[in-house]
Amino acid sequence: MLKIFFNLYVPNQLIALEYELTKRIELIKFGPPVEYVYSPIEYALSVHLNFLNKYCCGTKNILFLGMNPGPWGMSQTGIPFGEINSVVNWLKLSGFIGKPQKEQNDRKITGFNCKRSEISGRRFWNFFKSICGNPENFFKYSFIRNYCPVALMDASGRNITPAELKGPEQKRLRDVCDKALVTIIKLLKVEKIIGIGRFAEQRAKNVIKISGLSTKTLWMPHPSPRSTDNKNWNDKASKVLNDLNLIQFFTKTSDICTEIVS
């Protein structure tokens, strides 16, 4: 009974943490070049909650940490690296998706009707589909979230990453995102964080050092085509998992939630 209660408790805690983080980021007064702030945890809340209820029913050994939502991924679906086909046909998620308060004309939110495919998300989930078989085997020991769950864009719709921010805006964003990350590490009892890209790795390292946690911080290349020297990303990701002796956590066996509950 205690295990079942814990399984129900974790998603509720996570959605409260992510929603509070979203609202805190929205309170930051971003100056130019930031013109648009998209909060998918807010307008795609039901999809994200379904994601948590389905795939985060207990503690996690590994946390994959992305940077922030892309325009054709999480911004559309509310799911980290949330490429449409992967979210619908592999993760099997659904739910209501609304609109941001202020919408950029070239970055309209159409949710599951979006015709664009986010390359980063497609690469990430297709890779793990190839080695895990089903999503339950990916989420048995691991989970994934973005360091910053809010998308920032300039007037033209160009994505502005947290790494590009300057001055007091940068500090305020990092302060609230760092604090949320510490809380989530403790809640999920994470033993290893894999930063997807150098920015996520560095933020995780900073958080671990300041908080005094024993969590190990690791790195894998970001699947974005914008990343330098990023051809054959599948081979690079596979090598990282093998070199770090983590491939054992991603096998085509068992079912996560039924095992934990029983």
From TrEMBL:
UniProt entry tagged with the keyword Hydrolase: yes
Entry GO MF terms: DNA binding; oxidized pyrimidine nucleobase lesion DNA N-glycosylase activity; single-strand selective uracil DNA N-glycosylase activity
Keyword Hydrolase: yes
Coiled coil residues, start to end: none
Chief place of localization: nucleus
Annotated Pfam families: UDG
Key words of the record: DNA damage, DNA repair, DNA-binding, Hydrolase, Nucleus
Biological processes per GO annotation: base-excision repair
GO cellular component: nucleus
Domain Uracil-DNA glycosylase-like: 55-244
Localization, UniProt: Nucleus
Family: Belongs to the uracil-DNA glycosylase (UDG) superfamily. SMUG1 family.
UniProt-recorded name of the protein: Uracil-DNA glycosylase-like domain-containing protein
